[in-house]
Amino acid sequence: MNELTAILESIPVDPLTGSIAVPIYQTSTYRQEAPGVNKGFDYTRTNNPTRKILENVIAALEGGKNGLAFASGLAAIDCVVKLLETGDEVLAVDDIYGGAFRLFTTVYNKFGITIKFVDTTDPENVRKAITPKTKLIWLESPTNPLLKVSDIKKITDIAKKHNILVCVDNTFATPIFQKPLKLGADIVLHSATKYLGGHTDVLAGLLVTDSDELGEKLKYIQNATGGVLAPFDSWLIIRSIETLKIRVEQHAANAQKVAEFLETRPEIKKLYYPGLKSHPNYEVAKKQQKLPGSIVSFSLKEDTEESAIKFVTSTKIFKLAESLGGAKSLLCHPATMTHKSIPRERRLLGGVSDSLIRLSVGLEDAEDQIKDLEQALNALNNSAPVNKSVPLEIYV
Ligand SMILES: *Cc1c(COP(=O)(O)O)cnc(C)c1O
User: Fold this and answer.
1) Nearest CA, atom 5, ligand 1
2) Of 36, 250, 275, 386, which is least packed with CB atoms within 10 Å of its CB?
3) Whether 282 is catalytic
4) Does domain 247-379 bear CATH number 3.30.930.10?
């Protein structure tokens, strides 16, 4: 069956009423016929019919058996970390998502779970960094914001020899472009806040595993700690998954055009997009992803915060905001936004320069997106002052 047909067919018609849209079971609890005798649902933290459908849909989409839905991507990450014990060590991709960096280094460090960062684009670095304490390898591919691509299959092969779990944050690629379980990963994770939600209106996190043992452990932690996704938010993600494939394919087609345009501009110092031959991981990306995705990052020749701020305040279609993956194009300046809490020296060492700008290429017409970026690049050459913030009156 064609993948889009399979996705639509995986979302069931309601057997009770025939409702084509999935019903929202907005309930916290369920009537029991006798103590412990129920229809598979007793309390919504443990199980909810709307959430269950989402969990089944994402499991099918990732080619796994067990799916779990959480209140945010970070709640899903937190659930995976809770598989570990004091003394365990995590090996993680160096360009890790900022929120995951914070969780590992400030919250879990004090419980004796340590984390080591390596450049996972070379699997040899992973092999060399493994110690008897290593229990989890944490990958993101492509990464945020530098679009580093790691060879998932090569790394999971190494991990299997040492009995180490591999979790892949698949947020940027989406299950349409990349299926980490098929490449040997044990757990795949999504911030469904991004492409799966797709409309910048909901926070959600998802986990999928193909192992029943891991699935049970994660489900136990999910229920024990309670960071579950609400029924309405589960419904929003299910609805968005119906259009996921056509959305991300259009996003990627636009991003390719935008990246090719940026490549021609003299104001750009470095351009990061795995769909360009100049990207150092172009071949790996081509091998393991169907399409390169729709995040494009770049730094400016004039590599200063000031010129980046000038650029990000000059665009109109690309709106200045954190987050990504929605229908509307967004852009952000990591140095003063997502990566603000990281000391400058460490940030620069990691490759996030003062002028780095990250684009989330949306679904507007690519020609309009390019015109918007073009006028913002042109604006770098005039000397108009940078906008000052004006608080909205109702909030002051
Ligand atoms: C946004 C994001 C997260 C965190 O997800 P939230 O839903 O914001 O908690 C994790 N990983 C990546 C790659 C992300 O972009």
Assistant:
1) 73
2) 36
3) no
4) no
72 CA to centre of ligand 1 in angstroms = 8
Per-residue pLDDT of the chain (396 residues; tens, 9 = 90+): 899 999 999 999 999 999 999 999 999 999 999 999 999 999 999 999 999 999 999 999 999 999 999 999 999 999 999 999 999 999 999 999 999 999 999 999 999 999 999 999 999 999 999 999 999 999 999 999 999 999 999 999 999 999 999 999 999 999 999 999 999 999 999 999 999 999 999 999 999 999 999 999 999 999 999 999 999 999 999 999 999 999 999 999 999 999 999 999 999 999 999 999 999 999 999 999 999 999 999 999 999 999 999 999 999 999 999 999 999 999 999 999 988 878 899 889 889 999 999 999 999 999 999 999 999 999 998 776 555 566 666 665
| Catalytic-residue membership of 127 | no
174 CA → ligand 1 middle, Å: 12
Confirm whether 3-241 and 247-379 share one CATH topology.
no
> Catalytic pick from 82, 88, 95, 97?
97
**Residue 194 annotated in active site:** yes
Domain boundaries, the chain: 3-241, 247-379
What number does the ligand 1 atom closest to the CA of 100 have?
Answer: 10
Which of ligand 1's atoms lies nearest the C-alpha of 193? 7
3-class secondary structure per residue, the chain: CCHHHHHHHHCCCCCCCCCCCCCCCCCCECCCCECCECCCCCECCCCCHHHHHHHHHHHHHHCCCEEEEECCHHHHHHHHHCCCCCCCEEEEECCCCHHHHHHHHHHHHHHCCEEEEECCCCHHHHHHHCCCCEEEEEEECCCCCCCCCCCHHHHHHHHHHCCCEEEEECCCCHHHHCCHHHHCCCEEEEECCCCCCCCCCCCCEEEEECCHHHHHHHHHHHHHHCCECCHHHHHHHHHHHCCHHHHHHHHHHHHHHHHHHHHCCCCEEEEECCCCCCCCCHHHHHHHCCCCCCEEEEEECCCCHHHHHHHHCCCCCCEECCCCCCCCCEEECHHHCCCCCCCHHHHHHCCCCCCCEEEECCCCCHHHHHHHHHHHHHHCCCCCCCCCCCCCHHHC
Residue 169 designated active-site:
yes
